[in-house]
Amino acid sequence: MRSDSTWSALTTEQRDMLEGWLFEEHLGYREALERVQKEFGIAASMASLGRLYQQMANERMQKEFVEVKATAGQITESPLDWEQLAGAGMALVAKRLIQLAVESPGKVKEMGSLARVLLANEAILIKKRWVEFEEDRMDKEVRKALTDMEARKERMLAMEALLSVKSQPMPAASAQPYGGTPDGEGRRA
Predict the structure, then answer these.
(1) Residue 17: which residues within 8 A CB-CB, separation 6 or more?
(2) Structural domain spans, the chain
(3) Cα–Cα distance for residue pair 92/117, rounded to 1 Å
């Protein structure tokens, strides 16, 4: 906000009050300007209030973002069971749907929204189960392929060992003929 802006004359308390009128009470610009004139004695244009509103909205959004980020950090660091938390959340949604159906059957829009949330969650859970099933199937295939490769490798090593034994030269045979005597005379039958 510029220092020469009409709104820079507001005290912190007045600014907080104006922010409450705009964001909590959801007053329109015209009504807010009337209250500002009546309560603070400040006259301003609708265009300047519109610019102030946008500035306040941006500040609020940034503040909320910082708070959400801090909360998310705390949640991430806490030892929560996310699946259990999600299940509890869906149980609350289902409970609210039943409560509406019993107490306010005319609130069809809200019941429809809650039912869509439950159905979307169920669809996500089904897809998650299919992904887990497919991962298990693929793990089994990979394990089988690795086992087959190991078996082939062992067979190849065994064959190589046999081939290396067969390709080694035989020890030199003695000069004596089979059944011969050292003096070169063979036995005669």
Answers:
(1) 39
(2) 10-79, 81-166
(3) 11
